[in-house]
Amino acid sequence: MTTSEQTEPTRLRMVAADSWRFGLIALIAFLTLVDLFATQAILPSLVIKFGVSRATMGFAVNASTFGMAVAGIAVALFGGTLDRRNGIWISLAVLAIPTTLLSQTDSIVVFALLRVVQGLCMSTAFTLTMAYLAEHFSARQTTGALAAYVTGNVASNFFGRLMSAAVADTFGISTNFLTFAALNLIGAALVWFTLQKASEMMRADAMGEPARAAWKGPLRDAELRACFAIGFLILFVFIGTFTYVNFQLVAAPLSLSPMALGLVYFVFLPSMLTTPLAGRVAAGLGPRIGIGATLALAILGLLLLLTTHLPIVLGGMALVAIGTFLAQAIATGHVSRTASQDRAAASGIYLASYYAGGLAGSFVIGQIYDRISWTACVAVLVAVLAGAIAVARVLQTPKA
């Protein structure tokens, strides 16, 4: 048998193995983050249940992003020695507790606090998984693994919202949260049985520097600081858009029913196909142009949301999703490649910035929506993405 004949089967086996691993990573991402945005699909019903304003309910639902940001920082500072697999599965198992309690509460304050706890659990699992990928995959595989993880995130947005709307509309809000608690436990079991157990991980600083100092390195790097800012602005826009567009969709003249509102989130389906291409976009255009081009696409989508024609609005939502998810995947990959040391810290700070942006977007756009208009919201969101494109100008294409 010739060398080429031996090489081709080997290459195919490697591709098959990578495909299986990346599929598993995407499924873990789905089960980790499915609670995060699914509740947005039932926002109008929650407003009725709790009897509060749209801005208040939107902020309470997105309070999970505060927990995400806090946990991201905590893992960045103190997670260097945590066993990744144990940290991930325990976080997902604990996540089922606040998710179950959400089915029982009638207090908006308790609801918001439980969402914060959910965020703490989800972000811990998310950040540790990012570190696990960086530590267990080769440089060749890391970009694909990260893209798979972001693709799972996209799937959680799509299927999570669709499932939430369907279950809540058919069986009620309480059953909806119990269903998602079951998914949390399935995610914990999947991690337990599939991820490799590792011994004590490398500390943030191999020279014995205190773990609390791990964040200093990433913050000294201008490109990483730019990525942190871009992450903040991306989720500011994503949360601001997909939280409050729900109220536009159920109001006249569109007047969608709760079940129809869930079906609207098929707009995330194209993102599941395009997000895995983030690595190619970054390689072909570089991170600066790649992020600029994808966010320009999202700006176009935002402008389409100003119409009152449902097909055009849906097209705009799809473009916003495609653009922001691609930009997030490119920025995430750039953080992983740029942070040659303190990767857990860099990933944690990026995620903290990202989710802090989501909380800020929920609050700011909610106030503008209730006090001014949806048109003013779109104008602010466009300006924020323009700012992200400007920040991306400092990014450089990594050397091969």
Automatic annotation (TrEMBL):
Keywords: Cell membrane, Membrane, Transmembrane, Transmembrane helix, Transport
Signal is among the record's keywords: no
Annotated ranges, domain Major facilitator superfamily (MFS) profile: 21-400
Segments traversing the membrane: 20-43, 55-79, 86-102, 108-134, 146-167, 173-195, 226-245, 251-273, 285-306, 312-332, 344-366, 372-395
Record has NADP as a keyword: no
Gene3D superfamilies hit by this protein: MFS general substrate transporter like domains
Pfam family, one: MFS_1
InterPro entries in the record: MFS, MFS_dom, MFS_trans_sf
Entry-linked PROSITE patterns: MFS (PS50850)
Cellular location(s): Cell membrane
Membrane disposition: Multi-pass membrane protein
Family (UniProt): Belongs to the major facilitator superfamily.
PANTHER family: BLL2771 PROTEIN
Protein name per Swiss-Prot or TrEMBL: MFS transporter
Source organism of this protein record: Mesorhizobium qingshengii
